[in-house]
Amino acid sequence: MDIALLSMAMSQGKVQQDTSVALMKKSMDQAEGQGKALEKLMSSADVQKVQQAAQPHLGSRIDLKL
Hints:
Blueprint: H1 3-44, H2 47-54
């Protein structure tokens, strides 16, 4: 068994693992930021306007029979 080859393989594995962990942390931070932005948007939005935007055909006309 070649010790130098084993050492290089272990080093490459550690670099790959470190890169994977760093990428996961970045993804988690981004998801947390998006969650906070969505929470802020939802808390500042007027519920009636959101409902009207979701279903614009509802509530725009009233049928009256006398």
